[in-house]
Amino acid sequence: MEEKQHIGQLFDRIAGTYDGLNHGLSLNIDKRWRRKTVQCMPEAEHVLDVAIGTADLTIEMIRKGKAQRVTGLDLSDKMMEIGKGKVERLKVKGERMADRVAFMHGNAQDMPFEDASFDGVTCAYGCRNFQNLDEGLREMCRVLKPGGQVTILEFSYPKNCLIRFFYDLYFTHILPFIGRIVSRDKTAYTYLNKSVKHFCWGEEFVQHMQEAGFKEGTFRPLTFGITTIYIAKKW
Questions:
Q1: CA gap 30, 14 in Å, rounded
Q2: Which of 38, 56, 155, 194 sits between 20 and 30 A of 32, alpha carbons compared?
Q3: What confidence tens digit (pLDDT) does each residue in 20-50 have?
Q4: pLDDT tens, 171-215?
Q5: HSE (side-chain half, CA atoms, 13 Å) at 162
Q6: Region of 118 on the Ramachandran plot (φ > 0 left; ψ -120 to 50 alpha; else beta)
Q7: Contact 230, 207 (CB under 8 A)
Q8: What is the spatial distance between Cα 1 and Cα 163, in angstroms, rounded to a whole number?
Q9: Cα–Cα distance between 30 and 33 in angstroms, integer?
């Protein structure tokens, strides 16, 4: 997909309205999805959050004690600026959350980290934006320490025919229309729809994880299969 070549610029353009649209268009269900994702994580000292964006997943994992420190990687500087503003305003057990979170501009397919640098790796709604999914997953595996867990949250496609009909209606017509009006960007939310439809999910995604070097891959669909949590280990 051509838009993936400029994904950082795309998210820079919609950064200011991204959180409000996501929460509003999902009726805040996206917050519950992130909470469930964090519940699936083991406690870890240092976690890499790939495609950290506006830092919602990072904030949740630190609040729940699943990460003592987080390094976030993203191609969108403006999304990370919003994330930095959030963590600057928050405290955990009386300490500044910002002291425990580092933001870094970088490409998930060529990460600027040494092998086995992190105790855990996460990614929320970033994998389908990779120019090459397999390269991104291999990089996640490379920087993860042996015994560590990768936890990924990504959109998927409902199997139920009735749910899929309304899902297609919403993602093809309603979401892009509202997204264009609020974000004033003609392409971003059309891209969202296309990126979900053209992306792998379920057992196929787990197969990609295993081919990248992960073991014990499992997946857990949420909300009729609209989104899915993927978990795997590195041994």
A1: 18
A2: 194
A3: 877 876 778 999 999 999 999 999 999 999 9
A4: 777 777 777 777 777 676 777 778 888 899 999 999 999 999 999
A5: 0
A6: beta
A7: no
A8: 26
A9: 5
CA angle 3, 18, 223 (to 5 degrees): 90
d(CA 182, CA 170): 16
| Residue that has been written with the tokens 């959050």 in this structure | 49
Contact 93, 118 (CB under 8 A): no
Tokens of 66: 């699943």
Count the residues in the chain.
Answer: 235
Structure tokens belonging to residue 154:
């990504």
pLDDT of residue 123: 98
For the cut 90, the answer to whether the pLDDT of residue 129 exceeds it is yes
Alpha helices in the chain (DSSP H): 7-25, 29-39, 56-63, 77-88, 133-143, 161-169, 175-183, 188-197, 203-211
User: What long-range pairs does 185-188 form, CB within 8 A, spacing at least 24?
Assistant: 185/13, 185/14, 187/3, 187/10, 188/10, 188/11, 188/13, 188/14
Q: Give the chain's count of helices (H) and strands (E).
A: 9, 9
Is 123 exposed, middle or buried, given 0-12, 13-18 or 19+ CB atoms closer than 10 A? buried
pTM of the model: 0.93
Architecture of domain 16-158+199-233: 3-Layer(aba) Sandwich (3.40)
Residue type, 196: V
